[in-house]
């Protein structure tokens, strides 16, 4: 084994072998040396025996990039770590094999879709939730943090990602037949943080990470959605819906909007509703899966009228079927926007209709607990094990639905009177 005091002159004098590689080891620091290959490349290395008795060799860096003195200083640090029981070669191997954020996100989606990662209430994560996670991952998380080693992420990295998403740095056109752009904003930015934090948490739970590297990152506070329609606005919407119906608007879309108002159901619930779930005589819909798991929800006679009047399409089980595919009609939001423009109403979403149902129920004197049951909310104190679709709850839903139907009809009647005058 060749030895010499390593300095610039001795390293410069190294002659490349015809094949393989040669080493010269420093006489001052045991285990510090330089390797020269047949191409003439010279690389500083350290060599040591780890705690398991295995001979290890770790590259420090190229001669020319590092001076001999710089390489010697690094060698002292690494060999000091060896003396403390560490294994720089194993650390380097882990670093090479560690997942970056791209790979960790792919692992999460694969495992979660296979049901091997559990979410709320220790149940497999719903496909709809994973679809939203995947959209945030593809649009925002991967472009901003994808190449970063997951273990090396910091709270500052995650909060900087949130700021970038909020400011529209990842804005781009939507794909998959959806119009418009994915623009980010505070709500999306906060949900991206939540998604990434959950992925890192699952990775720690499954042993891919020793620690959650960004635990404690702060999400932007969300704005609570409080918009609801007043009595006058419900009448205006009824008038606009009647006008739209007479002027060629999709009757299916209008029926979904009416159902949302008359039931307080979530948009996804109303759109996905299937005929076999609806029990007109019993006055309920048996949803096999909602945001709050399987639920039996009351439905009033006015909403049942809308449901039973919908035309069936052979092979499509949905109450509101798509005319061009096997699934449900999904362009409700666009129709609502057009109708609200006719009515002169701003900032109205399908969720506004849900809030409106709850608001009217409150004005009719029903308690908060009853309204929560009507809307299918989970409760900290009362679960569905104790809330049944009894006659009292059916009555509350019926009275609320009847009142909203009356207001819509009053609005439509105003349009008819205008036609008579004209």
From TrEMBL:
This is Integrase. Keywords: DNA integration, DNA recombination, DNA-binding. Belongs to the 'phage' integrase family. Signal peptide: none annotated. The keyword Nucleotide-binding does not apply. CDD domains: INT_Rci_Hp1_C (cd00796). GO terms for biological process: DNA integration; DNA recombination. Residues 224-399 form the Tyr recombinase domain. The keyword Zinc does not apply. InterPro entries: DNA_brk_join_enz (IPR011010), Integrase-like_cat_sf (IPR013762), Integrase_catalytic (IPR002104), Integrase_DNA-bd_sf (IPR038488), Integrase_DNA_bind_dom (IPR025166), Integrase_recombinase_N (IPR010998), Phage_Integrase (IPR050808). GO terms for molecular function: DNA binding. It comes from Sphingobium baderi.
């Amino acid at each position: 084994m060749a030895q010499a005091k390593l300095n610039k002159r001795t390293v410069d004098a190294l002659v490349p072998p015809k094949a393989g590689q040669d080493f010269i080891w420093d006489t001052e620091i045991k285990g510090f040396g330089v390797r020269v290959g047949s191409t003439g490349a010279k690389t500083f290395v350290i060599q040591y025996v780890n705690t398991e008795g295995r001979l290890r060799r770790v590259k420090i860096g190229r001669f020319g990039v590092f001076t001999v003195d710089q390489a010697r200083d690094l060698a002292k640090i690494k060999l000091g770590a060896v003396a403390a029981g560490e294994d720089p070669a194993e650390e380097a191997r882990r670093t090479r094999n560690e997942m970056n954020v791209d790979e960790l996100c792919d692992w999460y989606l694969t495992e979660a879709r296979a049901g091997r990662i559990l979410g709320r209430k220790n149940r497999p994560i719903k496909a709809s939730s994973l679809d939203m996670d995947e959209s945030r991952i593809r649009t925002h998380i991967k472009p901003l943090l994808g190449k970063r080693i997951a273990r090396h992420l910091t709270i500052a990295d995650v909060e900087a990602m949130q700021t970038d998403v909020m400011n529209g740095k990842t804005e781009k056109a939507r794909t998959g037949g959806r119009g418009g752009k994915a623009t980010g904003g505070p709500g999306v930015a906060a949900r991206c943080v939540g998604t990434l934090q959950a992925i890192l948490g699952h990775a720690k739970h499954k042993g891919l990470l020793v620690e959650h590297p960004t635990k404690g990152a702060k999400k932007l506070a969300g704005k609570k959605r409080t918009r609801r329609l007043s009595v006058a606005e419900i009448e205006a919407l009824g008038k606009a819906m009647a006008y739209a119906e007479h002027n060629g608007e999709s009757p299916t879309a209008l029926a979904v909007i009416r159902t949302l108002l008359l039931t307080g159901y979530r948009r996804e619930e109303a759109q996905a509703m299937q005929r076999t779930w609806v029990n007109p005589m019993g006055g309920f819909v048996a949803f096999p899966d909602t945001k709050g798991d399987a639920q039996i929800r009351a439905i009033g006679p006015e909403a049942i009228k809308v449901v039973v009047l919908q035309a069936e399409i052979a092979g499509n089980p949905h109450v509101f079927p798509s005319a061009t595919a096997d699934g449900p009609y999904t362009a409700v939001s666009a129709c609502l926007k057009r109708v609200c423009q006719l009515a002169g109403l701003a900032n109205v979403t399908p969720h506004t209709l849900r809030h409106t149902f709850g608001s009217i129920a409150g004005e009719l004197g029903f308690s908060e607990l009853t309204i929560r049951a009507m809307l299918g909310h989970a409760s900290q104190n009362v679960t569905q094990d104790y809330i049944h679709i009894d006659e009292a709850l059916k009555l509350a839903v019926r009275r609320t639905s009847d009142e909203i139907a009356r207001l819509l009809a009053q609005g439509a009647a105003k349009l008819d009177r205008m036609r008579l005058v004209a």
